[in-house]
Design brief:
The chain has one domain. Helix content is 68%, strand content 5%. The chain contains two helices and two strands. Strand 1 and strand 2 form a beta hairpin. The N and C termini lie far apart (52 Å).
Amino acid sequence: MPGEPPHACAYCERPFAREEWLALHRGLEHADRLSDRERAAYERALESEEADLRMFRLQAIAVLIAIYFGFLIVYAFVA
């Protein structure tokens, strides 16, 4: 990552640190001008992003549940 040249959008020159972010940008901001290859890259990046977001949500829920039960157990012993 450090030292690598950023990926730039061919349509608006906006730089991105990762190629996946560039593909997502193209699909969201320039959807009407995408080639088939760019559209496929956008769809792959979108699927990957959705999977990552789903995993984050599950982990966040697990942490909240653990904190809740942790406080519940502490309260049961203290009170």
